[in-house]
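User: Quick sanity check before I run a bigger batch. Here is a single chain. Can you write out its predicted 3D structure?
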Amino acid sequence: MTIPTATYRIQFRNGMTFDRAAALVPYMKRLGISHLYASPIFTATRESTHGYDVTDANEIEPAIGGREGFDRMANTLKEAGLGLILDIVPNHMAASLENAWWRDVVEHGEKSRYAHHFDINWSRPLTLPFLGDTFEVALENGDITVKADPETGKPAFAYYETCYPLNPETWQGREQEILALTDKAAIAELHERQSWRLMSWRDAPTDLSYRRFFEITGLVGVRVEDPAVFDDSHRLILELVHSGAVDGLRVDHVDGLADPKGYLERLRQEAGDDCYITVEKILGEGEHLPEDWPISGTTGYEFIASLANALVDDEKLTALRKAYEESRGRTLDITAELSSAKLLMAGRNFAGEFNTLLTLALSIGEKQGDATDEKEIRAALRSLLVAFPVYRTYGTAEGMPPADLELLHKIVRKVKRSNNAPDSDALDFIVTILTGDVSAESASDATNFRTRFQQLTGPLMAKSVEDTLFFRQNMALALNEVGAEPVPRAFPQDLFHAEMKTRLERQPDALSGTSTHDTKRGEDARARLYTLTEAPQQWAKCVERWGQLNQPKVVMLEDGPAPKPATEWMLFQALAGVWPPDLQPDDAEGLQALETRFHDYVEKALREAKDRTDWGDSNDAYETAVLDYARHLLSADNQEFLRDFTQSLQPFIRAGLVNSLTQTVIKLTAPGVPDIYQGSEALNFSLVDPDNRREPDYDELEKMLDAQDVDFNSEAAWMNGQLKQHTIATVLRFRQQQPNLFRKGDYLPLSAVGKFADKILAYARTEGDKTLIVIAPHLVFDMLHGTLARPHIERWLDTDIVLPEHLTDRRYRDLLSGEEMQLADRIDLESVDCCSPLILVSE
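Assistant: Done. Predicted structure follows.
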């Protein structure tokens, strides 16, 4: 197996085609990339902007070049010596009539060849939750009629531009009669005879007959645990791997599968030992990938979480929390807020999935003759789901792995000790189902319960934390990231080193990403916002002052001010993260461009919080007031605020750029495979999707990389991302020369001693006689004195790095500057600039 030395993620669609990507191959090669990492390329819905709503897993999307365009790109990559990794989506497909399998299921019901390709409950009609209102209201309003499908000529129910095919047995031999129907009662009777039911999208959370992806009713679960379904949905994927065009696969949302381990074992068997395979998987604190999964690791969300330990000022975090609590007018109880968010999700957004589990549990109890009280079982099931600290366990029909069994019992003990604990016997009954300790008659139902329980805990966690709590609790937005822990914790540097050692031991070939198409904000925005923990009082004073300057735009509504002070805190912080380093208060065009992006973010943030508005039930007055406030912040007429904001932000911008370079150097040299998300080789100050999926300016990126006279002593090289880009190119080229050093080399934390020891992060990678030493600044907010241009006044006076004996008395070269030095038993940092990383390699 060829392990990538660095990947480059490109988002196809939205104008990005195979031919355009092929044209970027020379640029990627110069950047030091070994593999192109492609977002889903298979045919998806016509309006798809991302490709995860696949309609045909065995066809390459014509809109981005089809098979011919793909082959041209693959050949270009091979000729340049670059590999290709594909993002595949085994868990779900589009519940769209554009999907031929889904259309066949709608038309033929359980008689369809594909009826069991999808995770559908066939004990009832297939639900089609795509109406704006109930079927009865839509019919009464004349929105539903019977007509010939313009594509097939067959009778169908027409709802605006969509035609739902009728089951053949309900119209064959009566076609003209059916097409002539206008009587609403007759149309309603015809609807009742179908194997499906049209319904309002609002009823999907409580009344759905198929498993969906998270809350997205337009994505239906696929049963790849069935060998026939695996074969049908992986035919082209495996063909591309076996042909040599594709070198690796990234598996989307592996936790959504019924049996992740079984799926990965089958994928490994079919793809072969030479295929590089990673999975999208969120790991909780202290959680590790199952050791028996035949893969190279995850796509790296836990790596992002680890970086916080290196870049957050742990000693001042309490002060930031106190300032935030004073701003919002109440103390911060994250544990209670997390529980509240989970209860909301379980009781409302995932009510249908919850009720399916409850019904299964009660049925098992009835079969076994157990005395089960529905109210008590409901409370026990809800408590167990809400208490789950990780995405899921991995039990199968054979039972639960020992580690998962231990985790389950640990959670149960915690629930039993909690306030308002559910009935102990009811909770034990749920556990017997999960562990399979049931009668033979109930074994199949218990397996079904366990599978659906495990497929629910992940979405429940994700939607409760990432898409609710992280939009409600805004103390430090940099910490509200995919893969981050939702509850307060410490951020010691020692923990960062420990996690890197563990990473080397458990998944040295996993991807190390810092930005993705799903992260809440770009890596450089996050690096900047980490600096708030270094100057909490200064930040709090800024927020108070900015709030006063914009107070006239706060609107008093019946349910309170809009925005509230806590929301203002969020708005100012989000704006600080996305603010372009060179944007000036008098740049009306630049302000307008930013306002358009910021507006979409604010609308999403308000609705995801599910506090005073929601996606399903929007509060127009509240949203309008807050969006007007956000628009005012970026109005060219709001000069007093804009001048203050721009000037006050400068120290955070400068310290953030230092953090950005340190973060980059760590990604390039710590255990794992560096993954560069499109455009993030320069500066990425994006907001949550869809903002983070915008295409970068590749022409400008190529010009920057081509520049021969990069002045790393200038402020401009920092501000436009050129310093970051050239650092990446320099280190990635070295990685290609020394792959084993980075893949297998030991990770050795190094100690800094002296006056500025707490502002130095240092470690070594060693393999045989090869050594690389990384010395990077962090927590330097108060040392930059108004400029990033070198040389700085501040140096690491009276500060040394102590070297272990086997690294002493050797000659080293700094990769970034080319400077050579002879080292004895320590590195004297007195001549080193306070914002300059060193990457020393032994000569």
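The radius of gyration is 28 Å.

User: Great, the batch can go ahead then.
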